[in-house]
Write a structure and sequence with these properties.
This protein is an alpha/beta fold and 352 residues long. Helix content is 32%, strand content 23%. A hairpin with a 2-residue loop joins strand 3 and strand 4. The termini are far apart.
């Protein structure tokens, strides 16, 4: 089992996205030795030297059952050139730690940001996910209404899309959001709570009710959950969730899920190519998914080079082109850690 640190030191990104450019990469620590203490049978994390987690679908209701009676949150402000600041509420990392410790699930929140085959970094927010939020805000959604975020974690890009949909006045139309993360615990403890917070921040309340603050705690009970799920249905929002390792089984599961095939799919992904192995499996599953779609594409954000780990945007571009894809560079961040956002399409799509 190998462990990588991307210099986040076990903490989440700062509460202002403007400070992200000051972060720098650090070499990975030595590979861990020894073995993990076996977890209880219901553990969401695999044990070292055991097979990777299988591809699995999850219902929203099953993920909501794991929520505590309250969750602590803060709000991440993201500035966008020429546009109002986007404010995304997200669950506090320390609050996730508390729940994990209560459930005897401590893997994933140590000094390493990624433990291959154990934990893929989903509890924390990453720089490139903020780049995707900015790119989506800058170019507009262009009428898109189907999205799938691979390696979603805290799901900042999808949260921004959901927020924009919920803020619309009048006829909203339909919105399909898919969320995929290697660890089902990430979906349960971070992704779904953040979706709930995004809705709660815009929830109509009576004049005497407490307003939604930028930082605080959200009380959760059956009435709130019922109101949340009813609101999603009323506003045309459909959510789907997937976990497990990328591969043929994962792609088949995604392809078999109910979907509106009349709408083009936009896949979103950030920081999914940090190592050669991750890059290879991600590129293959991405092109497999895009190959089954009529139209659509993928917006992928990543660091140009993952020093000491082996992944790079250039290697990703070469691999995608080798699999029959076309890549367009659409955003570049030069300050701090150099990053890019690219758009991936199939050759068949560009001919259409």
């Amino acid at each position: 089992m190998s462990a990588f640190a991307f210099s986040f030191g076990g903490d989440d990104i700062e509460e202002t996205a403007d400070d992200l450019s000051n972060l720098s990469l650090s070499p990975p620590p030595p590979a861990e030795t020894g073995t993990l203490t076996p977890r209880r049978a219901s553990s969401a994390f695999p044990v070292a030297n055991q097979p990777l987690l299988p591809a699995t679908t999850h219902s929203l209701s099953s993920l909501l059952t794991g929520l505590p009676s309250k969750i602590a949150y803060n709000t991440l402000p993201i500035t966008v050139d020429g546009a109002p600041t986007i404010a995304l509420p997200r669950r506090e990392l320390w609050d996730v730690r508390v729940q994990l410790m209560a459930e005897d699930e401590e893997v994933g929140l140590g000094s390493a940001d990624v433990k291959t085959g154990i934990y893929e970094g989903g509890f924390k927010s990453w720089e490139s996910s903020v780049d995707l939020v900015r790119e989506l805000a800058g170019e507009g959604l262009k009428g898109r209404r189907r999205f799938l975020e691979l390696g979603c974690g805290t799901a900042l890009p999808s949260l921004a899309i959901l927020q924009r949909h919920l803020e619309k006045d009048g006829e909203k139309g339909k919105l399909e959001l898919g969320f995929a993360d290697y660890n089902p615990s990430v979906l349960r403890l971070v992704t779904v709570p953040n979706i709930l917070l995004t809705w709660a921040a815009l929830r109509p309340t009576s004049d005497d009710a407490e307003p939604f603050e930028e930082e605080g705690e959200l009380d959760i009970d059956e009435d709130l959950i019922s109101e949340f799920t009813a609101a999603l249905t009323a506003q045309g929002v459909t959510l789907s969730f997937f976990s497990g390792a990328w591969g043929t089984e994962f792609a088949t599961l995604v392809e078999a899920a109910p979907r509106d095939t009349s709408a083009e799919l936009l896949v979103l992904a950030a920081e999914t190519i940090y190592s050669p192995a991750a890059l290879e499996s991600f590129a293959e599953v991405l092109m497999r998914i895009l190959g089954t779609e009529k139209g659509g594409g993928a917006m992928v954000g990543a660091k140009k080079v993952y020093f000491g780990v082996g992944g790079s945007m250039e290697d990703f571009v070469v691999r995608v082109e080798g699999l029959g894809g076309l890549v367009e560079r659409i955003r570049e961040e030069e300050e701090g850690v150099r990053r890019e956002v690219v758009m991936v399409r199939t050759k068949e799509e560009t001919k259409a």
